Amino acid sequence: MNVRRSAAVLAAVAVIGAATPAAADPSPSPSQAFPSALYGDKDPKFDGVWRQSLALLAQDTVGVKPAAKSVQWLVRQQCADGSFASYRPDPTTACDAKTMLDTNATSAAVQALTALGGHDDVTRKAVGWLKAVQNKDGGWGYSPGGASDTNSTSIVIGALAAAGEKPDRVEKDGKSPYDALLKLALPCGGDGDGAFAFQPDKKGELAANADATAAGVLGALGTGMVVEPGKKSDATCEKAATPRQAAANGAGYLTAALAKDGDHLMSALAGAEPQPDFGNTADAVVALAAQGDTAQAEKSVRWLEKNSASWAAQSGPAAYAQLILAAHATGTNPRDFGGADLVKQLGATGPAPQTAGKTTSGASDEKEDSGSDFFGVWWYVGVCLVAGIGIGFLFTGRKKQQQL
What Pfam families is this protein classified in (predicted)? Predict the structure, then answer.
């Protein structure tokens, strides 16, 4: 999913400096390589675990058994306390106080490893860590201790549900994750009209965010990134007294936002022209399918079939995974997605799978194992800025801790 990283990207931009997308070089240096088990050939510093998890989850969803070494790479990224960082270049070095832990990466890893099976010890420890860093309002921020946001809280809910937990019973000071989400849901009427905000602003006000709303709908429904079309409920916006009603309200907001701009979401940075937001559109498709609003979901997935190829090729494995999950949610064939084989394209970004069904994956085993993780920072930030990823979750993936 675009699931949950653009706010962190903006934080990265603020720290790195005024990055100019036009100056970004998307081509890696021939002398630099990343672990052969890793999906993608761009700098994994901010999204290594995230994109690996999405790639593995998407492959499992379509019946592809990933390469064992790719799964093992993800397992070895876990810290001793159960958490995952965004990326650990040397997993033999123990995590310490300087390790930037990541609730989103941890939750994505839980969902992927649970789906793959056989990693109960890993997922149990990860869930234990997530529970330990739950905020007093019941939610989670991107990094432990950070203010709760819709995106992070929602993906943690998905991880809890995948691991067999009941999210409504995971409480801190009597507050559950759903309590946190309901506080981030906007009332009906006005510009927000049932949407979710990412976080309150400095004045405590909530602003509608389509990116966060897509995440919030899944979170309020208690589901993860892999969904089957749900049973449609009344789309009338009413006071969100329950998570189910908040999900319905959010879905209504997304439907209106998608229809307004030609069945896709738009994004614009300050001073830039509005442009299509492919990742968040894919996330919105998944959210609407989960809610049962299949009519708009199908229209938007058709739009993605026609328009998302260049974005996916530029963005890499997490983008292909997002599209596969959107296709799965709507019953669309990911092996013939606007004429493209998304499963094959995703497979070509990493090692050849153990079993691939109808897919012939282009292996990337020629990559040499390496701990290098810095060359792509400018490229990645530049691409994110060009892609117009919004403020909630990138679902190419959120790139850096908010407190950077």
Answer: Prenyltrans
Using a cut of 0.90, tell me whether the model's pTM lies above it.
no
Residue 353, Cβ neighbours under 10 Å: how many?
22
Chain position carrying tokens 């706010």: 7
Q: How many degrees, rounded to 5, is the angle at CA 110 between CA 107 and CA 114?
A: 150
* C-alpha separations of 179 from 149, 157, 167, 280 in Å: 12, 12, 11, 24
What is the distance between the alpha carbons of residues 327 and 308, in angstroms, rounded to a whole number?
12
The ranges assigned to domains in the chain are 6-387
* pLDDT tens per residue, range 248-304: 999 999 999 999 999 999 986 666 688 999 999 999 999 999 999 999 999 999 999
Torsion from C-alpha of 356, 362, 367, 373, nearest 10 degrees: -80
Q: How many helices (H) and strands (E) does the chain have?
A: 15, 2
What the block records as the tokens of 42 is 């761009």
6-387: what fold?
Answer: Glycosyltransferase (1.50.10)
Tokens of 339: 């004429």
